[in-house]
User: What shape does this take?
Amino acid sequence: MKSNSTTTQEPQQVCDLCGSGQHQVFATKGRGGSKLTTVICNECGMVYTNPRPTERENAEFYHKNYWGAYKNQSMPDERFFQRRLPKIRPMLTQLRPYLKPGVRVLEIGCSVGALLWSMKEVVGSTGQFTGIEPHGGHAQFAREKKGLDVHNGLLEEVSHKLKAGSFDLVVMNHVLEHTVSPTATLLTIKKLLKPHGLYVVEVPNAEAPGSRLSHFFHVAHHYCFSPRTLQRLAQKTGFKVKRVDELEGDLPKTRLNAVFEKPVAAEVDVPTKFIRDDPNERAEALRRYERWYWITAASFRKKITHWRRQRT
Ligand SMILES: [Zn+2]
Assistant: This one.
Protein backbone atom coordinates (compact mmCIF):
# COMPACT_ATOMS: atom_id res chain seq x y z
CA MET A 1 0.00 0.00 0.00
CA LYS A 2 1.60 3.21 -1.14
CA SER A 3 0.54 6.36 0.59
CA ASN A 4 1.76 9.89 1.02
CA SER A 5 0.44 13.19 2.22
CA THR A 6 0.95 15.23 -0.96
CA THR A 7 -1.66 17.91 -1.35
CA THR A 8 -2.83 18.41 -4.91
CA GLN A 9 -5.21 20.80 -6.55
CA GLU A 10 -7.54 19.39 -9.21
CA PRO A 11 -10.40 21.82 -9.72
CA GLN A 12 -12.29 19.41 -12.00
CA GLN A 13 -12.45 16.72 -9.29
CA VAL A 14 -13.76 18.39 -6.19
CA CYS A 15 -15.09 16.57 -3.14
CA ASP A 16 -18.80 15.81 -3.56
CA LEU A 17 -19.40 16.31 0.15
CA CYS A 18 -17.79 19.72 0.80
CA GLY A 19 -16.71 21.04 -2.61
CA SER A 20 -13.01 21.28 -1.73
CA GLY A 21 -10.38 20.40 -4.36
CA GLN A 22 -7.70 19.78 -1.71
CA HIS A 23 -6.90 16.20 -0.84
CA GLN A 24 -4.16 13.81 0.18
CA VAL A 25 -3.46 10.67 -1.81
CA PHE A 26 -3.93 7.67 0.46
CA ALA A 27 -3.55 4.67 -1.89
CA THR A 28 -2.85 4.00 -5.55
CA LYS A 29 -4.00 0.38 -5.79
CA GLY A 30 -7.43 -1.19 -5.44
CA ARG A 31 -9.00 -4.65 -5.40
CA GLY A 32 -7.10 -7.27 -7.40
CA GLY A 33 -4.09 -4.95 -7.74
CA SER A 34 -6.04 -2.59 -10.01
CA LYS A 35 -4.77 0.94 -10.56
CA LEU A 36 -7.08 3.03 -8.41
CA THR A 37 -6.28 6.26 -6.61
CA THR A 38 -8.01 6.77 -3.28
CA VAL A 39 -7.77 10.21 -1.71
CA ILE A 40 -8.90 11.82 1.55
CA CYS A 41 -10.43 15.29 1.38
CA ASN A 42 -8.36 17.78 3.37
CA GLU A 43 -11.46 19.73 4.36
CA CYS A 44 -14.10 17.17 5.40
CA GLY A 45 -12.18 13.86 5.57
CA MET A 46 -14.27 12.13 2.88
CA VAL A 47 -12.46 9.11 1.42
CA TYR A 48 -13.09 8.85 -2.33
CA THR A 49 -11.61 7.62 -5.60
CA ASN A 50 -10.03 10.21 -7.82
CA PRO A 51 -10.65 10.45 -10.68
CA ARG A 52 -14.16 9.01 -10.44
CA PRO A 53 -16.07 8.17 -13.63
CA THR A 54 -18.40 10.58 -15.34
CA GLU A 55 -22.14 9.98 -14.95
CA ARG A 56 -22.22 8.54 -18.46
CA GLU A 57 -19.34 6.12 -17.82
CA ASN A 58 -20.96 5.09 -14.56
CA ALA A 59 -24.32 4.49 -16.27
CA GLU A 60 -22.72 2.31 -18.97
CA PHE A 61 -20.91 0.28 -16.32
CA TYR A 62 -24.11 -0.51 -14.42
CA HIS A 63 -26.28 -1.11 -17.47
CA LYS A 64 -23.84 -3.56 -19.06
CA ASN A 65 -20.89 -4.59 -16.98
CA TYR A 66 -21.45 -4.62 -13.24
CA TRP A 67 -23.13 -7.97 -12.67
CA GLY A 68 -21.51 -9.58 -15.70
CA ALA A 69 -17.86 -8.61 -15.61
CA TYR A 70 -17.55 -7.62 -11.99
CA LYS A 71 -19.86 -10.04 -10.16
CA ASN A 72 -19.65 -12.82 -12.76
CA GLN A 73 -23.41 -13.03 -13.06
CA SER A 74 -25.30 -11.62 -16.05
CA MET A 75 -28.64 -13.46 -16.40
CA PRO A 76 -30.09 -14.21 -12.99
CA ASP A 77 -32.13 -17.30 -12.12
CA GLU A 78 -34.07 -18.53 -9.08
CA ARG A 79 -30.88 -19.92 -7.53
CA PHE A 80 -29.29 -16.48 -7.72
CA PHE A 81 -32.40 -14.97 -6.08
CA GLN A 82 -32.28 -17.55 -3.27
CA ARG A 83 -28.59 -16.80 -2.69
CA ARG A 84 -29.45 -13.11 -2.26
CA LEU A 85 -31.90 -13.78 0.61
CA PRO A 86 -29.37 -14.33 3.43
CA LYS A 87 -27.46 -11.28 2.20
CA ILE A 88 -30.42 -8.92 2.58
CA ARG A 89 -31.59 -10.36 5.94
CA PRO A 90 -29.58 -7.95 8.16
CA MET A 91 -31.09 -4.95 6.34
CA LEU A 92 -34.58 -6.47 6.52
CA THR A 93 -34.18 -6.67 10.30
CA GLN A 94 -33.36 -2.94 10.41
CA LEU A 95 -36.38 -2.11 8.26
CA ARG A 96 -39.00 -4.14 10.15
CA PRO A 97 -40.09 -1.30 12.51
CA TYR A 98 -41.05 0.80 9.47
CA LEU A 99 -42.90 -1.90 7.52
CA LYS A 100 -46.41 -0.92 8.58
CA PRO A 101 -49.68 -1.60 6.73
CA GLY A 102 -50.12 0.68 3.71
CA VAL A 103 -46.46 1.72 3.60
CA ARG A 104 -45.08 3.00 0.27
CA VAL A 105 -41.49 1.90 -0.26
CA LEU A 106 -38.85 2.64 -2.90
CA GLU A 107 -35.65 0.61 -3.11
CA ILE A 108 -32.87 2.08 -5.24
CA GLY A 109 -30.50 -0.57 -6.64
CA CYS A 110 -32.80 -3.51 -5.92
CA SER A 111 -31.05 -6.08 -8.16
CA VAL A 112 -33.32 -9.15 -8.54
CA GLY A 113 -35.66 -7.81 -5.85
CA ALA A 114 -34.75 -10.05 -2.89
CA LEU A 115 -35.15 -7.27 -0.30
CA LEU A 116 -38.17 -5.72 -2.01
CA TRP A 117 -39.88 -9.11 -2.22
CA SER A 118 -39.06 -9.85 1.44
CA MET A 119 -40.48 -6.50 2.58
CA LYS A 120 -43.64 -7.22 0.59
CA GLU A 121 -43.92 -10.60 2.37
CA VAL A 122 -43.79 -8.78 5.74
CA VAL A 123 -46.36 -6.08 4.92
CA GLY A 124 -48.75 -7.96 2.65
CA SER A 125 -51.08 -6.56 0.01
CA THR A 126 -51.69 -3.16 1.64
CA GLY A 127 -48.13 -1.96 0.95
CA GLN A 128 -46.75 -0.59 -2.31
CA PHE A 129 -43.23 -1.57 -3.33
CA THR A 130 -41.25 0.02 -6.15
CA GLY A 131 -37.69 -0.73 -7.23
CA ILE A 132 -35.05 0.86 -9.42
CA GLU A 133 -32.35 -1.33 -10.99
CA PRO A 134 -29.91 -0.41 -13.78
CA HIS A 135 -29.20 -3.96 -14.95
CA GLY A 136 -31.80 -4.97 -17.54
CA GLY A 137 -31.70 -8.71 -16.77
CA HIS A 138 -32.04 -8.20 -13.02
CA ALA A 139 -34.89 -5.70 -13.40
CA GLN A 140 -36.64 -8.09 -15.79
CA PHE A 141 -36.26 -11.03 -13.37
CA ALA A 142 -37.73 -8.96 -10.50
CA ARG A 143 -40.69 -7.92 -12.67
CA GLU A 144 -41.44 -11.17 -14.47
CA LYS A 145 -40.50 -13.84 -11.91
CA LYS A 146 -41.32 -11.98 -8.69
CA GLY A 147 -44.15 -9.70 -9.84
CA LEU A 148 -42.41 -6.57 -8.54
CA ASP A 149 -42.78 -3.03 -9.85
CA VAL A 150 -39.19 -2.37 -10.93
CA HIS A 151 -37.97 0.43 -13.21
CA ASN A 152 -34.89 -0.31 -15.28
CA GLY A 153 -32.28 2.46 -15.02
CA LEU A 154 -30.28 4.57 -12.60
CA LEU A 155 -32.09 6.87 -10.16
CA GLU A 156 -31.27 9.95 -12.26
CA GLU A 157 -32.67 8.24 -15.38
CA VAL A 158 -36.01 7.13 -13.94
CA SER A 159 -36.79 9.45 -11.01
CA HIS A 160 -39.01 11.62 -13.27
CA LYS A 161 -41.37 8.66 -13.60
CA LEU A 162 -41.97 8.63 -9.84
CA LYS A 163 -44.33 10.99 -8.05
CA ALA A 164 -42.65 13.58 -5.82
CA GLY A 165 -43.60 13.40 -2.14
CA SER A 166 -45.12 9.93 -2.49
CA PHE A 167 -42.89 7.53 -0.50
CA ASP A 168 -42.85 6.78 3.23
CA LEU A 169 -39.56 4.91 2.99
CA VAL A 170 -36.60 4.93 0.59
CA VAL A 171 -33.99 2.21 0.99
CA MET A 172 -30.44 1.86 -0.37
CA ASN A 173 -28.56 -1.26 0.71
CA HIS A 174 -24.86 -0.99 -0.23
CA VAL A 175 -25.65 1.21 -3.22
CA LEU A 176 -24.93 4.83 -2.20
CA GLU A 177 -21.16 4.24 -2.39
CA HIS A 178 -21.59 3.35 -6.08
CA THR A 179 -23.20 6.67 -7.06
CA VAL A 180 -21.23 9.42 -8.81
CA SER A 181 -22.77 12.09 -6.55
CA PRO A 182 -24.21 11.07 -3.17
CA THR A 183 -25.28 14.71 -2.70
CA ALA A 184 -27.42 14.67 -5.86
CA THR A 185 -28.77 11.24 -4.87
CA LEU A 186 -29.95 12.41 -1.43
CA LEU A 187 -31.53 15.57 -2.86
CA THR A 188 -33.54 13.45 -5.32
CA ILE A 189 -34.57 11.08 -2.53
CA LYS A 190 -35.72 14.02 -0.41
CA LYS A 191 -37.99 15.12 -3.26
CA LEU A 192 -39.50 11.65 -3.56
CA LEU A 193 -40.18 11.24 0.16
CA LYS A 194 -43.30 12.43 1.95
CA PRO A 195 -42.72 14.93 4.78
CA HIS A 196 -41.45 12.86 7.76
CA GLY A 197 -40.58 10.08 5.28
CA LEU A 198 -37.50 8.04 6.10
CA TYR A 199 -34.35 7.23 4.15
CA VAL A 200 -32.64 4.06 5.38
CA VAL A 201 -29.15 3.59 4.02
CA GLU A 202 -26.39 1.08 4.57
CA VAL A 203 -22.83 1.40 3.24
CA PRO A 204 -19.46 -0.18 4.04
CA ASN A 205 -17.82 1.55 7.01
CA ALA A 206 -14.48 3.35 6.53
CA GLU A 207 -14.09 3.05 10.31
CA ALA A 208 -14.14 -0.78 10.01
CA PRO A 209 -13.49 -1.78 6.38
CA GLY A 210 -13.80 -5.51 7.16
CA SER A 211 -10.97 -6.45 4.81
CA ARG A 212 -7.45 -5.49 3.92
CA LEU A 213 -7.46 -2.01 2.39
CA SER A 214 -6.26 -3.14 -1.04
CA HIS A 215 -9.47 -5.21 -1.20
CA PHE A 216 -11.72 -2.57 0.39
CA PHE A 217 -10.88 0.08 -2.21
CA HIS A 218 -12.40 -0.90 -5.52
CA VAL A 219 -13.41 0.54 -8.81
CA ALA A 220 -17.19 0.40 -8.26
CA HIS A 221 -17.07 2.12 -4.85
CA HIS A 222 -16.48 5.82 -5.48
CA TYR A 223 -16.91 6.80 -1.80
CA CYS A 224 -15.96 5.22 1.52
CA PHE A 225 -18.17 6.75 4.20
CA SER A 226 -17.35 7.04 7.88
CA PRO A 227 -20.07 7.73 10.49
CA ARG A 228 -19.11 11.41 10.37
CA THR A 229 -19.04 11.86 6.59
CA LEU A 230 -22.38 10.05 6.23
CA GLN A 231 -23.88 12.28 8.91
CA ARG A 232 -22.48 15.36 7.19
CA LEU A 233 -24.10 14.29 3.92
CA ALA A 234 -27.48 14.20 5.68
CA GLN A 235 -26.88 17.63 7.26
CA LYS A 236 -25.82 19.12 3.95
CA THR A 237 -28.87 17.85 2.05
CA GLY A 238 -31.35 18.96 4.72
CA PHE A 239 -32.25 15.64 6.35
CA LYS A 240 -32.75 15.14 10.06
CA VAL A 241 -30.39 12.47 11.41
CA LYS A 242 -32.41 9.89 13.35
CA ARG A 243 -29.47 7.55 13.90
CA VAL A 244 -26.10 6.45 12.49
CA ASP A 245 -25.02 3.01 13.72
CA GLU A 246 -22.00 0.80 13.16
CA LEU A 247 -23.46 -2.70 13.03
CA GLU A 248 -21.96 -6.17 13.13
CA GLY A 249 -21.39 -7.74 9.70
CA ASP A 250 -18.91 -10.49 8.94
CA LEU A 251 -16.71 -8.57 11.40
CA PRO A 252 -17.61 -5.99 14.10
CA LYS A 253 -18.85 -2.57 12.94
CA THR A 254 -18.51 -3.23 9.20
CA ARG A 255 -22.08 -2.15 8.35
CA LEU A 256 -22.66 1.59 8.55
CA ASN A 257 -26.45 1.84 8.83
CA ALA A 258 -28.32 5.11 9.13
CA VAL A 259 -31.85 6.50 9.21
CA PHE A 260 -32.50 10.06 8.01
CA GLU A 261 -35.84 11.84 8.06
CA LYS A 262 -37.21 14.39 5.62
CA PRO A 263 -38.32 17.31 7.79
CA VAL A 264 -41.45 19.30 7.06
CA ALA A 265 -40.70 22.78 5.66
CA ALA A 266 -41.05 24.56 9.02
CA GLU A 267 -38.48 22.29 10.64
CA VAL A 268 -35.68 22.75 8.08
CA ASP A 269 -32.68 23.76 10.05
CA VAL A 270 -29.54 24.47 8.00
CA PRO A 271 -26.56 23.93 10.30
CA THR A 272 -24.04 26.76 10.48
CA LYS A 273 -21.19 24.35 11.09
CA PHE A 274 -20.89 20.87 9.58
CA ILE A 275 -19.48 17.87 11.37
CA ARG A 276 -15.96 17.10 10.12
CA ASP A 277 -13.86 13.95 9.84
CA ASP A 278 -10.23 14.90 10.47
CA PRO A 279 -8.32 13.76 7.33
CA ASN A 280 -5.09 12.90 9.16
CA GLU A 281 -6.95 10.95 11.84
CA ARG A 282 -8.92 9.15 9.11
CA ALA A 283 -5.68 8.18 7.31
CA GLU A 284 -4.17 6.95 10.57
CA ALA A 285 -7.35 5.04 11.49
CA LEU A 286 -7.28 3.25 8.12
CA ARG A 287 -3.64 2.25 8.60
CA ARG A 288 -4.38 1.13 12.14
CA TYR A 289 -7.25 -1.04 10.88
CA GLU A 290 -5.00 -2.65 8.28
CA ARG A 291 -2.52 -3.61 11.01
CA TRP A 292 -5.32 -4.91 13.31
CA TYR A 293 -6.73 -6.94 10.42
CA TRP A 294 -3.47 -8.84 9.90
CA ILE A 295 -2.46 -9.17 13.54
CA THR A 296 -5.81 -10.62 14.66
CA ALA A 297 -6.19 -12.99 11.67
CA ALA A 298 -9.45 -11.22 10.92
CA SER A 299 -9.74 -12.66 7.42
CA PHE A 300 -10.06 -16.15 8.91
CA ARG A 301 -12.76 -15.07 11.40
CA LYS A 302 -14.55 -13.28 8.62
CA LYS A 303 -14.73 -16.43 6.48
CA ILE A 304 -16.24 -18.40 9.37
CA THR A 305 -18.86 -15.75 10.17
CA HIS A 306 -19.75 -15.43 6.50
CA TRP A 307 -20.12 -19.20 6.10
CA ARG A 308 -22.33 -19.40 9.21
CA ARG A 309 -24.57 -16.60 8.01
CA GLN A 310 -25.11 -18.28 4.64
CA ARG A 311 -26.34 -21.40 6.42
CA THR A 312 -28.77 -19.86 8.89
ZN1 LIG B 1 -14.63 17.20 1.35
